[in-house]
Amino acid sequence: MERCSPSxxxxxxxxxxxxxxxxxxxxxxSPAMQAVLKRAARFAxxxxxxxxxxxxxxxxxxxxxxxxxxxxxxRRRFVAVNVAALPTDLLESELFGHAKGAFTGAAAAKVGxxxxxxxxxxxxxxxxxxxxxxxxxxxxALQDGEIRRVGETRSFTADVRIVSxxxxxxxxxxxxxxxxxxxxxxxxxxxxxVPPLRERREDVLPxxxxxxxxxxxxxHGFSPGARERLRASPWPGTVxxxxxxxxxxxxxxxxxxxxxxxxxxxxxxxxxxxAGAADVRPLAEVEREHVLRVLDACGGSQSEAARRLGxxxxxxxxxxxxxx
Length: 324
Ligand SMILES: Nc1ncnc2c1ncn2[C@@H]1O[C@H](COP(=O)(O)OP(=O)(O)OP(=O)(O)O)[C@@H](O)[C@H]1O
Ligand SMILES: [Mg+2]
Known about the structure:
Layout: H1 31-45, E1 50-53, H2 60-69, E2 78-82, H3 88-96, E3 97-98, E4 110-111, H4 113-116, E5 121-125, H5 132-144, E6 146-147, E7 156-157, E8 161-166, H6 170-175, H7 181-187, E9 190-193, H8 204-215, E10 221-222, H9 224-232, H10 238-252, E11 257-258, H11 265-270, H12 283-297, H13 302-309, H14 313-323
Parallel strand pairs: 1-8, 1-9, 2-5, 5-8, 10-11
Antiparallel strand pairs: 3-4, 6-7
Helix pairs in contact: 1-2, 8-10, 12-13, 13-14
This protein binds adenosine-5'-triphosphate and magnesium ion (MG).
Adenosine-5'-triphosphate binds near residues 28 and 59.
């Protein structure tokens, strides 16, 4: 398996993911993912804010960490916060810190995540869920480069690169009035879209192998049946679902390899023995479909279609006649 390590020949990124248990790896075998990483490699060198879009579980955080790990800020911290996970006031003091006695229970002063990330990157996960009140505060912090702890009058400068992520359509949130337009433009100076796994099927098995190596060193691979099921699944839950499926299998597998019976039931049901068969159609059938489509695109002209298909006119004529 070819991986982006230590420095990818395609994108030039060193796939660092500091602070993670399974840190230094990112799989990008597919052209779609390689395109994302090439873009990320350029973004890493800029200091502008980045928004990373993509379905839940598609790998937004992995990309954010890689971006940070390849930026001039890599020696400073990557601080991640899920802004959907906390109620507004808690989130405010989490982000900006608070003074001693700022509110009941604030027995001591607290350093906020902005300060912690100073010189590094602050990753705002699920940014579309940021409450409007904090959107205003964040905008101020970004515009002035200054932040103020809750309950303090004095402000200080914060040198932080903001990388945010969301699985939502942020532009739609702006239209719906749940996300400030001015903040939207501040945050999305640079945009990366991480495609879901179904749009980059070349990554499925390399990712599965990576997860298997990480989760179950005693297993040496997948049975041919299990590989086929993994390959054929549409992966609605994208990479996270694949990760879970491999962990499930690794927990159950006996002997040296992970078999079909070790995979989660819903996966086996979803990608039954015939699921992959849709992709494995007889060549003649695929050829017929293609020839007729090209013929259509050429307005029915057999000589033009033959030229485009790289066939002799007589050969094409015989084929078309056989389809009648
Ligand atoms: N390209 C990749 N290479 C290696 N591991 C990956 C890759 N993409 C995703 N993963 C792994 O898949 C899981 C989900 O990725 P991640 O947490 O980055 O997704 P996410 O888009 O942030 O999801 P969510 O929207 O749910 O927060 C993690 O375990 C991560 O390590
Ligand atoms: Mg995430």
